[in-house]
């Protein structure tokens, strides 16, 4: 089975006695098709554990980390509110310092609340890139059961997962994540230098895009990611983006209609309209068979 995240390794490394560690690996996800999403990417996982003394310092004798309380949006039932807030401060300060070290102190950042299976509370960090907010990491306070099942000591901690390709996109001004998987030497040769600190991606001849729409009635239980998976399986890297441009509910039947705009482009050559039309027709045909959609004939 292909892993969707590197968080599964947290417990074994905590059990080995580590209080702080980083690990990196490839992960695989069903996701949308656009400039910042790809079905495989590299994630760096980070964990930091704190004892009471390490978290509170000189005030540790008067400030407990644990309680038998209620789970709320701000904390777990095992943690005092002060422990949770102090750990949140340590987490966000550390990660903000990391991105400022990479991109400079003028970088625009934004924290948003999130939900993840291994942390609570949880947050995502966004960075302004090409005029839009790009999520670059997920983070949060580790679920206490993970720590308690691995060690007997009274510790709490935070964890985060960084998308390495997205950080590189911002650092080197790379416009599309799928470029990391190209075999084109015009891309790779730009980074074959001893010092990459001043390297900025220089676009090579950009081949024209082709845009085609597909409208269809959605069956009961329709999942958007199923459609994106099918498009990716058929079109591969020739599909640059799939965007939902219209959605409405039929007033009588209550059936939902979607209109997706699919952008086709090759990174290596000019894609002909006939080639794109063939792929588009095959997507529509297979989607009707496999996903049970009804393509709307306009």
Mean pLDDT: 91
Oligomer: single chain
Q: Which range does the strand content fall in? A: 25-35%
Radius of gyration based on Cα positions: 23 Å
Order of helices and strands: HEEHHEEEHEHHEHEEHE
Unreliable parts: none
Give the strand tally: 10
Kindly report how far apart the N and C termini lie.
41 Å
Helix/strand-derived category reads alpha+beta
User: What's the shape?
Assistant: globular
- State the share of residues found in helices, binned by percent: 25-40%
Tally of contiguous helical segments: 8
Strand order of the largest sheet: 1-2-6-5-4-3
**Sheet with the most strands, sense and barrel status:** 6 strands, antiparallel
List the helices and strands and how they pair.
Elements: H1 10-15, E1 20-28, E2 40-50, H2 52-56, H3 81-103, E3 109-116, E4 119-129, E5 132-142, H4 144-150, E6 156-163, H5 164-172, H6 185-188, E7 210-217, H7 224-235, E8 239-249, E9 256-264, H8 273-290, E10 294-295
Antiparallel strand pairs: 1-2, 2-6, 3-4, 4-5, 5-6, 7-9, 7-10, 8-9
Q: Mind explaining what this structure looks like?
A:
The chain is 28% helix and 30% strand. It is an alpha+beta fold and 298 residues long. It has a six-stranded antiparallel sheet with strand order 1-2-6-5-4-3. A four-stranded antiparallel sheet has the order 8-9-7-10. Helix 7 packs across helix 8. The mean pLDDT is 91.
List keywords for this structure.
alpha+beta, 8 helices, 30% strand
Summarize the structure.
The chain is an alpha+beta fold.
